[in-house]
Amino acid sequence: MRIKNIPYGVTRQEILAFLGRNAKIAASNDHEPIHIIMERVTSKTLDAYVEFVSFTEASNAITRFDMNRMGGRGGRLGQRHVEVELSSQEELMKQLFPKAKNVEWHGNKPTIIDRDENDKYNSGFQGFVSREELVMLVKHVESPQRSPFSKDCPQRPFECLVSTLIKFPWAMVNHITCQDRELLYKATMQLLGLLVERVDNNDDPVNLNAQLLKRVWRTALKCEGFSPCMKDNIVYKMKIDPTTAFECGVPPQADLWSNVWTIGPRKDVAYDLVQYYVTLIHDATTEKKQLTLAEKAAARAEEVPRLPSLFGNLDTLVDYTNCLDLTLAELAVKEWAAFETAIRRALTPALEAGPSN
């Protein structure tokens, strides 16, 4: 459902109150059903979209709105008369990702259209969110006095980030570069840091509060595109306890997944099984040669400092040259090949030896 002509300072709570208790919107535990669209460059508030559990429920909500309006009740958000109409996932995605060129949306799934070589003004698909949009999203919070629209609704950039992370088409791994993800992750970390500062200083307890902060970091931890190590950085920055982090999909010892950029444990697989294969990879990529004390001392003196990793020296099997320019799919192929090489290296001796008597 689309709500048009909304006040630029409208809040999520006001929209919930406007919809009424009978509105069956999508569950908010793992989903953000209300999206107040903000133009990332100017911070101007546009329309609001509400996701319902079904098309029928959205139609029922609009019917109730029309009946109330005919009876002289409702129709206002704040001091404004608003318009309500049925919308679609396609329309929502177009509004959330306006800079995504050469894209056709089918529900929330995009189809990338090849660039027309005869159109010299068509630069083709350049990503779903531009660098400029993410930079400005942070700037609106850093310098609100320069952003007249976000000055009076300081929560809007954070709500925009939540909607962006949730609706971002992470499944399009062949079209999302590691640089694209890095920019979005960097913006997320910056905004989280700024929000923590605002909440701690009690700058605006109505709009910038602990509830909003929790919505942002929970969304970031559940983001399908962030790596385990990225999520662990968020856990550390937000001082989140391990149990809560695990419930949000962060694996144990996520800080030691630093060598893996694109692969993570599946939520529906027991972590003991994951740990088994991780151990195989670690053992297969770590030297086990017996050294004398003198040789060990000499090796330590020559050793280049390395970040600790659950995966041993797996990174020696992956060529990370210019990896930020690679798509997530291209880098995942390299990392998966390294996984297979290490596991084969670990299991081959046992397979060749055959069953024990």
Automatic annotation (TrEMBL):
Q: Which Gene Ontology terms cover its molecular function?
A: nucleic acid binding
Q: Which domain of life is it from?
A: Eukaryota
**Entry's InterPro entries?**
Nucleotide-bd_a/b_plait_sf, RBD_domain_sf
Mind telling me what this protein is named?
RRM domain-containing protein
User: What organism is recorded for this protein?
Assistant: Botryotinia calthae
